[in-house]
Prior knowledge:
- This protein has helices at residues 17-29, 70-75, 88-92, 117-123, 150-156, 196-199, 252-256, 302-305, and strands at 102-107, 113-116, 127-134, 139-149, 165-170, 191-195, 205-210, 213-214, 224-226, 239-245, 280-283, 292-294.
- The chain starts with 16 loop residues before the first helix and ends in a 13-residue tail after the last helix.
- Strands 3, 4, 7, 8, 9, 11 and 12 form a seven-stranded mixed sheet that branches.
- It is built from eight helices and twelve strands.
- The chain has one domain (11-310): Sulfite Oxidase, Chain A, domain 2.
- The radius of gyration is 19 Å and the shape is globular.
- By secondary structure, it is α+β, with helices and mostly antiparallel strands.
- Molybdenum atom (MO) binds at residues 78, 135-137, 232-233.
Amino acid sequence: MTVYKYPKPLPSEITPKETFLNRRSFMKAAGIASATALSGGLAINSSHAMTPSLEFSKSKYSITDEPNPIEDIKSYNNFYEFGTGKGDPAANAGSLTTKPWNIKIDGLTNKPGEIDIEDLMSKFDMEERIYRLRCVEAWSMVIPWVGIPLRDVINAYEPQGSAKYVSFETLVRPEEMSGQRGLGGLDWPYVEGLRMDEAMHPLTILAVGIYGEPMPNQNGAPVRLVVPWKYGFKSIKSIVRMSFTENEPPTTWNKLAPNEYGFYSNVNPTVDHPRWSQKAERIVGSGIFAKKRETEMFNGYADEVASLYEGMDLAKFY
Ligand SMILES: Nc1nc2c(c(=O)[nH]1)N[C@H]1C(S)=C(S)[C@@H](COP(=O)(O)O)O[C@H]1N2
Ligand SMILES: [Mo]
């Protein structure tokens, strides 16, 4: 297994073994999981000395596009729990306490339980997945996630045969989430859901980091969903609960405007949003003469996922 930190290290950046051992004991003391044996990987000198890096392998599911710089990824966000402006999450999400953090897993399962984020990160193998995130608002960026295939976690919790969907819930903590205070806005908690076969698809991940570092708060620390062939709002952040259900679970944006945001919400350039076109997308960070690219069916993943929707009319809004 190749273990590396993003971007690829220069040989001069490889940490001497002693420093590596110290870093590992720091990681241990901090309760940071390290799934790989000492002999297994390179130790890379981090530019953020006290930020423990994650260990992960590369994945065949990554796209080859150049990822956006970390500054774009951390400064242009949607996370309504911290406000509705694109800069609000970066300004306000620092107040979120992400340790300790537990995810409850319940519903139609033989093994309901609760898993601590550190256990999640040490029990399951992590992979880098470079995906394009395509927001329903017609912008996109390329993000190098580090995550765990959701199917590995689902298999460990043994859903019953009657479970047809998985629902997800974000934290409710108005003391720390400024967007949850006061009147108006969305209904909290933010909720999302997938059909079981979508949740089990190898492209679907629980992301715990970006650029090899733990997930920034504004991007959904400490753990969020990433479903790359669906509009960004399906990729729910800061998850505290997953449930297996028999019926299609309610989802936040669909509850608010069912004619604008469907349960499926697969990226589809042939079905316009009632208020704007979905044929093209603005590339975030490409300047005032913002570059555009044509939006691809299933965000470029048609070969991998189209079979999930056989029999559904793709020219229709779902
Ligand atoms: N809990 C929660 N999850 C959320 C959102 C949100 O407001 N709250 N916004 C969604 C939307 S619309 C998008 S485009 C992505 C943005 O992810 P990013 O900020 O990491 O790029 O997160 C999604 N997940
Ligand atoms: Mo979005």
